[in-house]
What we know:
By secondary structure, the protein is of the alpha+beta class. It folds into 2 domains: 24-207, Nucleoside Triphosphate Pyrophosphohydrolase; 218-272, Arc Repressor Mutant, subunit A (Orthogonal Bundle), CATH 1.10.10. Helix content is 20%, strand content 34%. The chain is built from 5 helices and 12 strands. The strands form 2 sheets. Strands 1, 2, 3, 4, 5, 6, 7, 8, 9 and 10 form a 10-stranded mixed sheet that branches. A two-stranded antiparallel ribbon has the order 11-12. A hairpin with a 4-residue loop joins strand 8 and strand 9 (163-174).
Amino acid sequence: MEKVYKNEEEFLKDYNPKDFDQLSMTADILLISVSSEETSNYRKNSKKMMSILLVKRDDFPFKDKWCLPGGFLDPNKETLEECAKRVLKKETNISNVYLEQLYTFDSLNRDPRTRVVSTSYIALVDKNRLTEMINPNASWFDIILIEEKDNIVDISLTNGVEQLNLSIKKTLREKTTDRYSFTSRKNVLAFDHDLVVLAGIERLKNKVNYTDIVFNMMPEYFTLGELQQVYEVILNKKLLDPAFRRIIKDKVVKTDKMKTGEGHRPSVLFKYRKKND
């Protein structure tokens, strides 16, 4: 017969944590940048590229595979967000960037060591503005292709030396909310990080339409043309100038600064209009 307790204090005297199944938790971070590619031709317009930061694993499991920065939660010392910030700093030497929780990945076999549930985060930065040197085993990969056909999404990544080709199947889960589940067809990255990459890109693509999230990847001053390129890279489509101007008209403020010295006609610089401006 199950014991009936009079109060919480009495219950806690009998409580034994070993009576409950144990699992491990990790935080994995998808760090995204939309920045100008490097060019030695000052007359050439810099092309914007979406990039993600990957880390090469130096131990088993998945030794020598690329993965997202991540690590195990210390349940007695930190929250999940604190864990995400700590492992991002430890594995990449990057800190003080925009961070938001993305999704929890809890597939039964996602980690061959034990049952591990991962809470993923999306982090945004303009990598051209970073002052820290990233760790030697970390590398920025440019996204050179995002193509969707028949609910199969192909994503190609390159760091100039290696090319990684991800392929993920989307399955509609709920029509009313347009929610999808993802299944990796190749498992190119360690664990289930192929799925985190797609989930993060889709989250960013959706939020750019109704929030100011894009400005976490912009320098303090920018031209409208540069801002439009960032929107177009994220949305993966060309925007008509009038439509784009309507999107950002209340989000930016014109400054008295000009962009010069790149072989083009000087352009007016704008900055983000903060909510209290």
